[in-house]
Amino acid sequence: MTRSEHNAVRGKMIIPEQRQSIMMWITESTQAGARQQQACLLIGLSTRTLQRWQKAIEQVDGRTRRTAPPPHKLSPCERAKLLEITSSAKFAHLPPSQIVPMLADEGLYFASESTFYRVLRDARQLKHRRAERPAKPRFKPRALCATAPNQLYSWDITYLPSRIKGQYFYLYLFLDIFSRKIVGWQVYAEESAQHASDMIKDICQREGILPGQVTLHSDNGSPMKGAILLFTLETLGIATSLSRPSLSNDNPYSESAFKTLKYRPEYPVNPFDNLQDARAWVEHVVHWYNQEHRHSAIEFVTPAQRHAGLDKALLAQRNTVYEKARAANPTRWAGQIRQWPYVKEVHLNPQKSREKKVKPDARKAA
After folding, report:
1. Residue 66's pLDDT is what?
2. 347: closest CA among 56, 150, 140, 201?
3. What is the C-alpha to C-alpha distance for residues 113 and 103, in angstroms, rounded to an integer?
4. N or C: which end of the chain has fewer CB within 10 A?
5. Distances in Å between the alpha carbon of 70 and those of 14, 73, 332, 338?
6. Dist CA 74 CA 82 (whole Å)
7. Bridge partners (DSSP) listed for residue 109
8. pLDDT of res. 63
9. Where is the signal peptide (predicted)?
10. pLDDT digits over 279-289, tens only?
11. pLDDT band at 69, cuts 50/70/90?
12. Whole-angstrom Cα distance, residue 183 to residue 207?
């Protein structure tokens, strides 16, 4: 036994390599006729410590050899059923966050959203397949709030490519922020405040908008600030709200809607041949957006259902489906079921609290 090993034992600072050397030295001593207790006493080591070291080498942590599966684990048939559902033509292009509520609307429950993700990950079928960039936080300087449909609209214009380089078609889109429903759209060959004025007149007539009922938010583009449009809005009694110049983040709902539409699988790879083709595509994708698309911000109901006031009953039905599923197999829930709350308010650019705490001395001075 070396001097460093002897000092390490005395100071109780023993590393695994020194421990092996000490055990080997004591083994050689006992084989030569020395008593184990005397050998340990000589170097200042407890015999029980030596026995614990020897036992640790012989034993293996039983937790690493656990093979018993949890009692509520999905069976192979259930996992195969989940993969079959997610690979079907109806759900192959949707994430589990969209699949689960759609199945619940049909009165079906197979597993939680996290279980869908876990099964897909184990089967190497969970992969981000979309081309958009990750979401970024937005600073919203102007505060507006909607508590019902037809209170707060947002509108914007986006480009659609044409066959002629440098020329575009222009999609005008009006969105109800509370329900996320596209209440008006049209494709024109140019940007014009007159087109927007005609569209808002038609929307007010179809939706039955009264003076002072709606606030219309937009960015600072020239069609949005055109004299014809502003005069029309004043005549209809519609309040206006504008984003800051050159800052699209102040109008996030319209930008998000454009992004959703343009990243659809049906979006054409080649430019549109003419104005009629562009309008036909927009008509198809707007119908999907309003009637079929489950919007995540409104608890995965369609904009048309929320605009018509049908979302409360649908969300209550989902809660009932989850209650029945938990009653049928309670071992799969460690806590409460997933809740589907009704979204009562929708905010556009809510103000952040910037109030500073005032010291007591400052209050007295004031």
Report:
1. 66
2. 140
3. 11
4. C
5. 40, 5, 10, 21
6. 10
7. none
8. 66
9. none
10. 999 999 999 99
11. confident
12. 8
d(CA 267, CA 261): 8
pLDDT > 60? residue 361: no
Domain ranges of the chain: 3-59, 76-122, 144-293
Kindly tell me the sign of the dihedral angle through the C-alpha atoms of 91, 81, 340, 319: positive
CB 145 within 8 Å of CB 348: yes
**Distances in Å between the alpha carbon of 330 and those of 69, 325, 364?**
17, 8, 60
Our CA dihedral for 294, 299, 305, 308, rounded to 10 degrees, sits at: -150
Residue 349: which of 260, 247, 258, 249 has the closest Cα? 249
DSSP 75-108: PHHHHHHHHHHHTSTTTTTS-HHHHHHHHHHTT-
CATH number of 144-293: 3.30.420.10
User: How far is Cα 178 from Cα 181, in angstroms, rounded to an integer?
Assistant: 8
3-state secondary structure at position 125? coil
Q: Is the separation of the CB atoms in 177 and 152 below 8 Å? A: yes
As a whole number of angstroms, the distance between CA 241 and CA 195 comes to: 19
Phi-psi sector, 278: left (phi>0), alpha (psi -120 to 50), beta:
alpha
**Residues 310-344: pLDDT tens digits?**
999 999 999 999 999 999 998 888 888 999 999 99
Pairwise CA distance, residues 96 & 311, whole Å: 20
> Is residue 223 a contact partner of residue 196, using CB atoms and an 8 Å limit?
yes
Helix, coil or strand: residue 174:
strand
Residue 218: strand pairing partners: 242
257: Cβ contacts below 8 Å, ≥ 6 apart: 173, 175, 180, 182, 289
pLDDT-derived band at 140 (thresholds 50, 70, 90) equals low
